[in-house]
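hey so i finaly got around to running the thing on 5-formyltetrahydrofolate cyclo-ligase from Streptomyces doebereineriae. pasting the sequence first so u can double check i didnt mess up the copy paste, my clipboard has been acting weird all day
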Amino acid sequence: MTADDVREAAAALADRALELPELARARTVAAYVSVGSEPGTLTLLDALRERGVRVLLPALLPDNDLDWGAYTGEGSVARVQHGGKMALFEPSGERLGPDAVTGADVVLLPGLAVDGRGMRLGRGGGSYDRVLARLERAGARPALVVLLYDSEVVAHVPEEAHDRLVHAVVTPSGVRRFRSGA
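ok and heres what it spat out for the 3d tokens, dont ask me to read them lol
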């Protein structure tokens, strides 16, 4: 994709996501800053903040779990290189602890793909698997939404016993909901 294609996809993705009723009524959203070839999220994060939504961003811990911090604009994130792993954009302010995510109304998840059942394929580090398990243990029931490109919605992804279904996927062309979200 060209730089213009990436910008246009990010804007379309934000527009589609902002149409979700779950985001319209959300007070707190756990999200992430996209990296590499992921669909752009900054436009969406800024739009959520303009609506008065508290946006939480993850910070990768040494054991691959996630801590959380508040997003208050582009100046509140820093590029952090994690050893041999990819560099991530993380909140530069106060850390709120791994359990902060349990207060989110919506959790926006990265992924490589999602299938027709709502099974998400992550990058394999297990960070978001831990987040989903933490939500389940806490009895938290946020809307789980994956942000992807259209081509990343596929027929089938492999699953393991710890994997959880998501409620919806948002792509630049629209929203697809899954029965798991009922």
